[in-house]
Amino acid sequence: MNILHASSEVFPYSKTGGLADATAALARAQAAAGHTVTLVTPLYRSIRDAFPGLEPLGQAEPPARVWRLEPEPNLTVLFVDQPEWFDRDRLYGHADDAERFIFFSKCVSRLAKRTEIVHAHDWQSGLVMPLLTDVPVGKVFTIHNAAYQGRFPADKFELTGLPESFFDWRQLEFHGDVSFLKGGIVCADLVTTVSPRYARELLTKEYGCGLKGVFQSRGDALVGVLNGVDYTEWNTTDNPHLAAAYSGDSPGGKAANKHALQRELGLPELVDVPLLGNISRFTDQKGIDILLGALEELLGGGVVFQFVGLGSGDPLLEQAMSGLAKRHPDRVAVQIGYDTGLAHRIEAGSDFYVMPSRFEPCGLNQLYSLRYGSVPVVRATGGLDDSVIDLGQGDALATGIKFTDYSAEALGQALGRALALYARPKRLAKVRDNGMRADFSWGQTTAEYERLYAKIKKPAA
Ligand code: ADP
Fold first, then answer.
1. pTM > 0.90
2. DSSP annotation of 429
């Protein structure tokens, strides 16, 4: 099939979160499966310097330069170059984000006409779906996080160039504003999200982010497909970021990574103390508030463990995390910032990976932690629930620990179960081994998308 993806971030060219990893890996997996895949993304500042292989392709309409790169067979990445909109430090959070991503979506819709499937991701590319209304292509829209909706004042609607009839509550209008995410949801042939449980959660008031009714109106056209992991990027056997290689068959090297991590972050290099890890955007979503509460409680109670955290975001959460590390320098180490190498080393060096999200569409870090032998402790929501098997299911199957209530107490209890597991090395080794052998590669995701695409593909003109 001829597939075109539109994404506002693609690893390794740009990234703020899981969207970049997921779109890059899906496109690569589809290309490897023999499809002809094009990925369209903005040319942000510094991409051209970092990737000298970029070749000029020509002009897009509306006026933009387009650069192309063929990182592997069957895969072309097209970069939309419009310095006024994209030559900036931050990817998002600018006063003119509506203009920027209307522009991007228009470029994509012009580039998309000769493909069979156009697959747009998240609000930044949502308008691609209505912009292709009369074009005979199969239209797929994937929601990686419904909390980010691209909602702007009504006067921005005119810039889309769409007929006035699209500014209607059944289309893009949302409480008097224009919603790019809603445009994607209502105008796509098929709406997917990144885990089956999150697809069900979107139909509820608690998780539907105000769009419950819109999701319900799509019926069977809303489908959850769990993301995969790009194991060429996230692996423990051939990884320049790690101190030592290890695997399920030869797990010994994990200890060296733990030591190296303790040394790197200035924690005492203790062998028998369980080490917990977390890597997050510090937002309300990620459960940093209950994480802080649970850690304080355990530290106050004299429970012996170490914790390493990496993240950035909300300044108050940054301060609270740094403050915890300052008060407990031999137990807690926190790095504020964004550091891919350290993210790999935390996954490899920690015994447990803590992910207490309030909601989690798919979540990638718990999938990485499974492969890295860092037993995930997760709240049973979204993709976390779909990808981790709790200890209660028996040692033959268990890969991690789950809890349900969104509270510091419930997380504290789950961490208590983790520390009890640590005290039983044989059982810990079994659970860790189950996780390391679990396979979340993109093969299954790609196969599921092939099936879904076939349903909506338009007959050749
Ligand atoms: P989300 O997309 O909601 O942030 P995911 O778990 O799906 O959450 O994906 C997060 C991705 O971003 C992972 O690859 C993770 O390692 C990475 N990441 C998040 N914060 C940081 C950070 N501070 N430093 C390095 N990588 C980070």
1. yes
2. H
